[in-house]
Write a structure and sequence with these properties.
Structural class: alpha+beta
Bound molecules: FE2/S2 (inorganic) cluster
CATH architecture: 3-layer Sandwich
Number of helices: 3
Shape: globular
Helix content: 10-25%
Radius of gyration: 15 Å
Strand content: 25-35%
CATH topology: Rieske Iron-sulfur Protein
Mean pLDDT: 81
Low-confidence stretches: 21-39
CATH superfamily: Rieske [2Fe-2S] iron-sulphur domain
CATH class: Mainly Beta
Number of strands: 10
Largest sheet: 4 strands, antiparallel
């Protein structure tokens, strides 16, 4: 039953808990963002981001602004809900990469995984994925979707 509770409610220190303001951290409570709505400054802080996503950047057609280019430290990965879609955004080797947030094995949130180089390990059972290609290194027949990323001015833009 703990698995299903986690599946429904999220992990105690996961994104949903942080957005509910119940995570064991000093992050302030913030409202759950409406899908497609721009994130508020409180939501940015709840995600632990140091820079707010720029509002003065027009993304290319089909792209959405997801982060300030300096918000995500090197070697970090984060779960972001943008336009109703959960994606994981990673920074490795100075480049940003975006991939589906849901692990095909059992739905683990890859944005809460551990990033080592360009490889993220799923927080649930440790399957490993190359964030640059979406290839699963644990089960070679499995891949996760990747998304194109462009830096426009100070914004990280992802094609959704
Ligand atoms: S849910 Fe990702 S490895 Fe099991």
């Amino acid at each position: 039953m703990p698995f299903f509770k986690t599946l429904l409610e999220g992990r105690p220190n996961g994104l949903r808990a942080r957005l509910r303001g119940t995570a064991p951290s000093s992050a302030p409570a913030s409202p759950v963002p409406t899908p497609g709505a721009p994130r508020t400054e409180a939501a940015e802080k709840a995600l632990g981001l140091s820079h707010e996503a720029p509002k003065d950047v027009t993304p290319p057609d089909g792209y959405e602004v997801v982060l300030h280019k300096d918000a995500l430290p090197e070697g970090q990965i984060i779960e972001i809900i943008i336009g109703g879609t959960a994606i994981a955004v990673a920074k490795s080797g100075g480049q940003h990469y975006a991939l589906a947030n849901t692990c095909p094995h059992a739905g683990g949130p890859l944005g809460d995984g551990k990033l080592a180089g360009a490889v993220v390990a799923c927080p649930y059972h440790g399957w490993k994925y190359d964030v640059t290609t979406g290839a699963c290194l644990t089960q070679p027949s499995v891949t996760v979707r990747t998304y194109k990323v462009q830096i426009v001015g100070t914004a990280v833009c992802v094609e959704l």
